[in-house]
Amino acid sequence: MALDSNIDTFKSMMSRRTGMAKSNRYAVFINLPLIATSPSTLLTNLISGNRNPMQLFNDPRDIGMMAEIAALPGRTIQTAEYQTNMKARKMPQGYIADDITITFLLTGDMYIKNAMEQWQSRLIDTSRKVAKYKKDGVSDIMIQTLNQQNNPSYTVKLKNAFPVSISQVDLGNTNENTISRLSVTFAYDDWTQDNLSGALLGAGQRLIEKFF
Fold first, then answer.
1. Does 132 map to a domain?
2. Which residue, 180, 153, 157, 155, is CA-closest to 168?
């Protein structure tokens, strides 16, 4: 039986709950090393005419602005069947947090692609075929949903994340007006809801934007 409600009750509820959540209002923060580029990438940029000294540094805002598609992670409880009195019951046994994929827009200097490949190289040295320590190549990722005032309404932290898969970048003669994109899949140890850190991060972001 449906609850007795009308449009005014619905509007009151929506006002109390700050409206509907909009999927295009979000922010992504990835804590990468301060130095952004390798010597070979720097030389390539210089030869191509990119002599801006700021290319040497990672600005978290750059990655956030280029994140075209993101996702809030889910969680699945693992169960085992337990039978009693002829009735099978599911018993919680553990949980799984699936990998997430973030799609980035690519700039002309291939900043995001270079950054993600360098991140992977901190875990696997493909030239020497050597696996490195995981602790030296992981970083936390924060994903936020934002309200109409651009304040965080929900924040998750992906703990010890790292890129397990970097997609190919499609090229083509008919793609003259098409922006290149890169999809990166991240694995992580676990995720937690962290609204306090999200609020502090959002406040810091707004303070930085006032001066830079």
1. yes
2. 180
Residue that the structure tokens 């694995």 belong to: 187
**Number of compact structural domains in the chain:** 1
Tell the residue number behind the tokens 């997609």, with chain if given.
Answer: 167
Residues present in the chain in total: 212
- Report the pLDDT value the prediction gives residue 7, as an integer from 0 to 100: 86
Cα distance between residue 50 and residue 22, in whole Å? 37
Note whether 166 and 160 are within 8 A (CB).
Answer: no
The owner of tokens 């069947």 is 81
Residue appearing with tokens 């003669």: 173
Distance CA(210)–CA(14), nearest Å, equals: 32
- 135 DSSP assignment: G
Domain that holds residue 171: 23-211
CATH number reported for the structural domain that contains residue 41 in this entry: 2.30.110
Does pTM surpass 0.85? no
Transcribe 104-173 into DSSP letters.
EEPPTT-HHHHHHHHHHHTTEETTTTEE--GGGS-EEEEEEEE-TTS-EEEEEEEEEEEEEEE------T
Q: Which region holds residue 18: left if phi is over 0, alpha if psi is between -120 and 50, else beta? A: left
* Cα atoms in the 13 Å half-sphere on the side-chain side of 3: 5
The verdict on residue 12 lying in a domain is no
Token readout for 212 is 């830079």
**155 in a structural domain:** yes
pLDDT digits 0-9 by tens, 57-97? 567 788 889 999 999 999 999 999 988 888 889 999 999 99
Helix-strand-coil split of the chain, %, nearest 5: 30, 35, 35
